[in-house]
């Protein structure tokens, strides 16, 4: 394959996923890896298919990737009035995908999850395209369960997930944009050097629960640490007064996130795999507050490996939260242990492994 590529054959890759940033980041890490390969061996042409309203359009636009939106319905395994409407969006998405794929003629179709990808994969299977499904979370979601039987390759983040996909699946870890998150300068946050830093992340779209918890905890926490709080767009809490040492942001771009990770003494975070993979990559001591559902399975793996402190959202209130933050900030040995364990809980080099699969097959 490399011989053909070096002779100037262009490979077309259709990336699909969205609705949240969690299904986007791993594919952008693979894009980064293939871009290095392109410089040495070949050229690639990319197209991203995602939702109309998710954050993916903005995320991929920054990388210069062409984007097309399709209608996206969701397959719910519980009662909802939307179940009567969404099948029509899935059908529309199928025919939109058919037009896109027949025109673009991709060599590969790749997803890391998201219901918007399902009609794309159905069309990909009908048109005999090579396809890859990457399973990020420990527990397989319905969208990936629907797509995996149609794919040429299935890759997983955790060894435990192999039982959902059989012996043909490949355990590779989760792709991380590590090079993009390396600090190039320290100019965005005006932080004191003699006070610890607490970085708080609510996931790609923010967490109303964590935002409220932080707001209630500010009077005490701002006395002992500086707080960088990524609230999510449109979710920045209204403060009755400005707190010293508190820096809320609705959104941080890649360069700003790199500086935030570098500055952080400890991190409080949701349990989406994109963020957990970054915490593992940088070895950051973390307190995890999972969103009830599939995130709990992710959190329990980290807890099992002694890689993070896990707090259960249903029973969590401000005094217990403050106590846990204070304890971790004061315990340097616990920080060191968590840092070591979290850096080992996810396999490294996943983006390279996925790039190898694409180039060799």
From TrEMBL:
UDP-N-acetyl-alpha-D-glucosamine binds at residues 20-22, 177, 295. It catalyses: di-trans,octa-cis-undecaprenyl diphospho-N-acetyl-alpha-D-muramoyl-L-alanyl-D-glutamyl-meso-2,6-diaminopimeloyl-D-alanyl-D-alanine + UDP-N-acetyl-alpha-D-glucosamine = di-trans,octa-cis-undecaprenyl diphospho-[N-acetyl-alpha-D-glucosaminyl-(1->4)]-N-acetyl-alpha-D-muramoyl-L-alanyl-D-glutamyl-meso-2,6-diaminopimeloyl-D-alanyl-D-alanine + UDP + H(+). The chain crosses the membrane at residues 84-102, 108-126, 188-210. Pfam families: Glyco_tran_28_C, Glyco_transf_28. CDD domains: GT28_MurG (cd03785). GO terms for cellular component: plasma membrane. Gene3D superfamilies: Glycogen Phosphorylase B. Residues 197-352 form the Glycosyl transferase family 28 C-terminal domain. It is found in: Cell membrane. Its main location: membrane. Keywords: Cell cycle, Cell division, Cell membrane, Cell shape, Cell wall biogenesis/degradation, Glycosyltransferase, Membrane, Peptidoglycan synthesis, Transferase, Transmembrane, Transmembrane helix. Pathway: Cell wall biogenesis; peptidoglycan biosynthesis. It is a peripheral membrane protein. Coiled coil: none annotated. Residues 13-154 form the Glycosyltransferase family 28 N-terminal domain. GO terms for biological process: carbohydrate metabolic process; cell division; cell wall organization; peptidoglycan biosynthetic process; regulation of cell shape. It comes from the Bacteria. Its EC number is 2.4.1.227. Cell wall formation. Catalyzes the transfer of a GlcNAc subunit on undecaprenyl-pyrophosphoryl-MurNAc-pentapeptide (lipid intermediate I) to form undecaprenyl-pyrophosphoryl-MurNAc-(pentapeptide)GlcNAc (lipid intermediate II). HAMAP family: MurG (MF_00033). Belongs to the glycosyltransferase 28 family. MurG subfamily. This is UDP-N-acetylglucosamine--N-acetylmuramyl-(pentapeptide) pyrophosphoryl-undecaprenol N-acetylglucosamine transferase. It comes from Candidatus Falkowbacteria bacterium CG10_big_fil_rev_8_21_14_0_10_43_11.
